[in-house]
Amino acid sequence: MPRLILSLLLALLAVSFLSLGRAFAADAMHTQSQSPIFFEGATIENDYPESLTFNIVAKSNDGEIVSATLFYATRDEISTTRQVVEVDPASRVELSFTWDTSDLTTPPSAPIVYHWEVVDSSGNRASSQEELVFYDDVRYEWNVLEDENIAVWWHDRPISFGGQVFEIAQEAFVRQQEMFRVDPEYQMRIIVYNDFDEFAEWHSYVSEFTGGQAFPTIGVTTQIVSAYNSIERWLNDVIPHEISHLYFYQATKHPLVDPPAWLNEGIAQLNEFSRDSDAIDFAQRAIAGGDLLPLWSLSGSFGYQEADVRLAYAESLSAAAFINERYGNDGISKLLAAYKSGISEDEALVAGLGVTLIELQREWLAWMGVDPDMYPTPTAIATVAWPTPPTYTTPTRNPTKTATPVTENTPIANVSPSPSSFMEETETSAVVELATTASSSLPTAPHTDNNSLQGEDSGQEQGGSALCGSIALLLVIVAFFSFRSRISAKS
């Protein structure tokens, strides 16, 4: 009997919860149906690579639609484009905006996230559902082979060709998954063009020596594969190399951290199916001969001098091969996970490998048979903090602050990687003091994104600004003491 009563009580409780859930659902549907603003008919017009047009219909049951704004951005981009669209007030409006990409380098299959926001005359505001659209190259009839991790796109070539590329890509992914030990967040696409002209048509500018590009932030690599016979070895190197760049980005992605270029390029070369032992030997000979490019100088762009670029790539491969041999896939996966957590380079190396960058370089040199003492460890350089110049104005007892309106210009979403800049605002103390400080940080090269489209290095410009500022400060101090000397002489 007690069990029967308990069963009946549980059944009644279940029915009550079910009824309550249905009531909440009905109430939610009623609320949605009574919403004064709603959207319908969202469409996209793709005219790649010239433009992408966003269309939607907005209606209001409580007034006229008086303003509309489109928000769009490339997936994973920090910035979002905010585009105001002119509206002729009405209860039903057809909204449209065309994004002109004819003068941009917009890679095919760029994933664009967008939504609309409108306001009616009664002050009601509503947003449409966020949508994801791929800005595909619709000029060709593509063949596609794909699984959840890899997709290969090609056109006007035999099915066997696409199958060959897909097989290489799948094998590369499996090997790299063992190294990175993390599942990708989204599919990686390999898009094959048949000649340079096809590839160049969607670029604002591209060098004639370019054979392909990787766009890690959107998970796309585009390659030029001409229809010649000896392409098997080329595919076995290039496809795994480019997948490595896309996978590396997803394994280390963090908005405030950019892993060094030598590690990214070194691992990409290491993941090629044919190991380039000649490059490792070249690096060893150059370093033993006194031509080392320190690892901390290879954190950004490898520059434009052919000799330096060649050595930088060879050193990167050599350093990655050393890390793989000494610390294994376990060390590499821990290192990449440390970068993804958002810590600095030295902190990531300690967390992943248990060594600092200087210690890693010494171990690597010894591994190559080069005496680490050939290259002395950099030391901190003492710097002088200039005194703050005195002020000649008398402060008021109750100073007032006037708020200045700030206009925020949201940058247009860019499908190419771009460096992030951070501005730190500091307030100068009125106290005059002299201090000598020593910097314990490692020397680093100016930061440049190591993706296909690199941002311009601003290190030189900042250095020039700092120099001008120091000179101006020195002149102020000299003028001040000269002024005091004149006063003393007159008195």
Keywords for this entry:
491 residues; alpha+beta; Immunoglobulin-like; Glutaredoxin; 4 domains; 5-stranded antiparallel β-sheet; 5-stranded mixed β-sheet; 10 helices; 15 strands; elongated; disordered N terminus; disordered C terminus
How does this structure look, described?
There is one protein chain. The chain is elongated. The longest helix has 35 residues, at 306-340. The protein has ten helices and 15 strands. It has helices spanning 2-33, 159-180, 196-200, 232-252, 261-270, 277-288, 306-340, 345-353, 357-367, 459-490, and strands at residues 37-47, 51-60, 65-74, 81-85, 92-100, 110-120, 125-127, 131-135, 143-146, 150-154, 188-193, 212-215, 220-224, 382-385, 435-438. Helix content is 38%, strand content 20%. Strands 3, 4, 6, 7 and 8 form a five-stranded antiparallel beta sheet that branches. A five-stranded mixed beta sheet has the order 9-10-11-13-12. A three-stranded antiparallel beta sheet has the order 1-2-5, with no helix packed on it. Helix 4 packs across helix 5 (261-270), helix 5 (261-270) crosses helix 7 (306-340) and helix 7 crosses helix 8 (345-353). The protein is an alpha+beta fold and 491 residues long. It has four domains: 37-135, Immunoglobulin-like (Sandwich), CATH 2.60.40; 140-253, Collagenase ColT, N-terminal domain (Glutaredoxin); 254-378, no CATH class; 381-389 and 430-447 and 465-491, no CATH class. The N and C termini lie far apart (113 Å). Residues 1-33, 380-474 and 476-491 have low confidence and may be disordered.
